[in-house]
Amino acid sequence: MFTGIVEELGEVVAVEELGDASRFRLRGPVVTEGAKHGDSIAVNGVCLTVVDHEGDEFTADVMAETLNRSSLGALRAGSRVNLERPTAVGARLGGHIVQGHVDGTGSIVERKTSENWEIVKISLPADLTRYVVEKGSITVDGVSLTVVDAGPDYFTISLIPTTLALTTLGIKEAGDPVNLEVDVIAKYVERLLTAGAAK
């Protein structure tokens, strides 16, 4: 379980194609501190399992399902990535409940820069629109954010200078893909209401 509070801006060192999967080698001195085989690390909002680590680098295998459902397949050596370790039980929940299970991808539509913040418009897949509400929570590339405006096929977010400086959202351009994870509570509520209505 994650909170969407990115710990560091890491880097893809290498990508090895394995047919129906890929093996990523990533650099992140903060998230690799004390890391061991089997640990989880979120990479751009995708929960990956540490296969091995040495120094400030770790490797993770990414299966076809993850490559198809997320934007990780577009990463190359040199790509910057948001990294976060799982939250410890009893720790502060600084963002919101994030599973690291990407629901789909959107893309940056446009950016509007202001003196102290930036408004970013992101396209939204049709099957996710019902989960996105104004002032609700959404995870974009692993970053916990508040929805400013929820449209029929898009949403907007407002980014403060800290988020722009410390995450990939500061360097993404129009057309770039982003991973989206909607609020899991909304999905459970929908499931419960649907199951109740069917009785």
Automatic annotation (TrEMBL):
Pfam name, any one: Lum_binding
EC number(s) stated in the UniProt entry for this protein: 2.5.1.9
An individual GO BP term: riboflavin biosynthetic process
InterPro entries linked to this entry: ATP_synth_asu-like_sf (IPR023366), Lumazine-bd (IPR001783), Lumazine-bd_dom (IPR026017), Riboflavin_synthase-like_b-brl (IPR017938)
Positions annotated as Lumazine-binding repeat: 1-96, 97-193
This protein's record includes keyword Transferase: yes
UniProt pathway: Cofactor biosynthesis; riboflavin biosynthesis; riboflavin from 2-hydroxy-3-oxobutyl phosphate and 5-amino-6-(D-ribitylamino)uracil: step 2/2
Broad class of enzyme this protein falls into: transferase
Transmembrane annotation, as ranges: none
Catalytic activity line of the entry: 2 6,7-dimethyl-8-(1-D-ribityl)lumazine + H(+) = 5-amino-6-(D-ribitylamino)uracil + riboflavin
This protein's record includes keyword Calcium: no
Domain called Lumazine-binding: residue spans: 1-96, 97-193
Molecular-function GO terms, alphabetical: riboflavin synthase activity
Keyword annotations of the record: Repeat, Riboflavin biosynthesis, Transferase
Gene3D superfamilies in alphabetical order: 2.40.30.20
NCBIfam families: PRK09289.1, PRK13020.1, ribE
SUBUNIT field: Homotrimer.
General function of this protein: Catalyzes the dismutation of two molecules of 6,7-dimethyl-8-ribityllumazine, resulting in the formation of riboflavin and 5-amino-6-(D-ribitylamino)uracil.
Protein name from the UniProt record: Riboflavin synthase
Organism, as annotated: Streptomyces coryli
Lineage, opening ranks: Bacteria, Bacillati, Actinomycetota, Actinomycetes, Kitasatosporales
